[in-house]
Give the backbone structure.
Amino acid sequence: QVQLVESGGGLVQAGDSLRLSCAASGPTFSTYAVGWFRQAPGKERSFVARITWIGGSTDYADSVKGRFTISKDNAKKTVYLQMNSLKPEDTAVYYCAASLGGPRYDFWGQGTQVTVSS
């Protein structure tokens, strides 16, 4: 199965930037897409962004369009989430997940905490 490890989270101030990384290992050739999700305290996990492994097609949640950019390095088997102009409401645990196809995400990382202070 595909293993995913997130890194890059931390504590920043509003307006700052962070770049999250999601390193994949295992049979990544079977991966269709990798997505980023987040879960704030007391809230359900929500979609942030997605990129297809082949082709690099991207999708974003409306709340992050124009501020976040998802990208990938196939050779490094790593997906990135560049987060600019961070807001306190971006505070959450961020997870990456891999989809083998369709809307379901089959493998998940352990998450990385992002905290944005006002």
In short: The two ends are 40 Å apart (CA to CA). The chain is about 0% helix and 55% strand. Residues 24 and 77 are 5 Å apart (CA to CA). The first strand starts at residue 3 and ends at 7.
